Amino acid sequence: MLDIKFVRENPDVVDKSCESRQNAHWDRERFFELDEERRSVIAEVEKLQADRNAISKQIGVLMREGKKDEAEAAKAQVSANKGRISELDEKRGAVEKELFDLVAAIPNIPHESVPYGKDDSDNPEVRAWGEPTKFDFEPKAHWDLGPSTGMIDFDRGVKLAGTRFYLLGGNGALMERALINFFIDQHVKAGFKEWWPPVITNYDSLFGTGQLPKFDEDLFHVSGGMYLIPTAEVMLTNIHRDETLDASQLPLLYTAFTPCFREEAGSAGRDTRGIIRVHEFDKVEMVKFAKPEDSMNQLESMVAEAERCLQLLGLPYHVVTLCTGDIGFSATKCYDIEVWLPSYNAYKEISSCSNCWDFQARRANIKYKDPSEFKGSRYVHTLNGSGLAVGRTMAAIIENYQNADGSITVPEVLRPYMRGLEVIKPEA
């Protein structure tokens, strides 16, 4: 969430930011109407309070002077002032709520280093690692290799839960667990603290990270006004909601594995085959809390951490910077890491690493204090990134490590996590 003072003083910046994003807008005229009304109400209340205090002091004097009628009139005036102040307080509450809701719907301001663009076709490549895999035979897609090896069962997944769900069996289930443990182990070695959070969350947590109220239709609702999490980012970031951290703790590095649940509203017809875009998937997430002056460095190191996992797995990928038209609601800068998928003959997103500046911290009220540098407290900067999406990693392994006979070679770093298994063979 943006600072209301910032919006008031920089409306042209907000205009430009919204114009550069997809489907972003704000009601500038209504903002200034509400802002002026709020300040007018505050000014009137302050005047009434000053008058009340002055009149109250006069009442005692009038009583001592025997001016009972004048004292009673003064009391009546104090009572009237009190009633008017109560009315104005109620009005102020309504105005401030509308103003808060208006500002809460404005997306974050893209960092000055973010390139301008209309959509993902304008995302510039930063670097690439490895060469797109070449085969001396006709390669198959993971949606064919998965069933033939007994790793993925699409039909029974649909039978059990519906479209865009799938079932993992045998070595598919084994590889899923192997990837989760491998990713977590790598992040813990890099200094991240592992957490095991719930997968059901509340409105406040989703508001804090920016999913609500804007993206309600993308979420799975459960009873009691609760939701299934779309990403562990929600839980990890909100661990410190309404807390003030000590500067000596920063940066804080957190990681967690969770299943993730997304309605995928508006994605009809996109990536309908395979396990690239589904309603439930596993993901290992990274979250950081950093000082403002260090957050961009922490973003770069987060991207490097996700890249390291792909390099150890030997999967070709490239990194792109998201342009203004493709960047997420809460992010000020974002990199996508896209892994090579032969079935698409293209790179597909496997990790998105974002610096949210103080946008989420302001929504979730997460601050830090450093008495050696400043009085009071300031908002931290929050960062998040996939490390990595497990299902998409499995799809990439199946396709890039396939052999002419339909078998799949297990990446060497995964073998200790898969009982020493070196090759997954087709089922008879």
UniProtKB/TrEMBL annotation:
Database matches in CDD domains: SerRS_core
Keywords from the UniProt entry: Aminoacyl-tRNA synthetase, ATP-binding, Cytoplasm, Ligase, Nucleotide-binding, Protein biosynthesis
Catalyzed reactions per annotation: tRNA(Ser) + L-serine + ATP = L-seryl-tRNA(Ser) + AMP + diphosphate + H(+); tRNA(Sec) + L-serine + ATP = L-seryl-tRNA(Sec) + AMP + diphosphate + H(+)
Pathway in which this enzyme or protein is active: Aminoacyl-tRNA biosynthesis; selenocysteinyl-tRNA(Sec) biosynthesis; L-seryl-tRNA(Sec) from L-serine and tRNA(Sec): step 1/1
Predominant subcellular localization, coarse grouping: cytoplasm
Pfam name, any one: tRNA-synt_2b
Protein location: Cytoplasm
Binding positions for L-serine per the UniProt entry: 231-233, 285, 386
Documented EC number(s): 6.1.1.11
Annotated ranges, domain Aminoacyl-transfer RNA synthetases class-II family profile: 175-411
Residues reported to bind ATP: 262-264, 278, 349-352
Domain remarks in the Swiss-Prot or TrEMBL record: Consists of two distinct domains, a catalytic core and a N-terminal extension that is involved in tRNA binding.
Record-stated family: Belongs to the class-II aminoacyl-tRNA synthetase family. Type-1 seryl-tRNA synthetase subfamily.
Function: Catalyzes the attachment of serine to tRNA(Ser). Is also able to aminoacylate tRNA(Sec) with serine, to form the misacylated tRNA L-seryl-tRNA(Sec), which will be further converted into selenocysteinyl-tRNA(Sec).
Oligomeric and partner information: Homodimer. The tRNA molecule binds across the dimer.
Protein name, as recorded: Serine--tRNA ligase
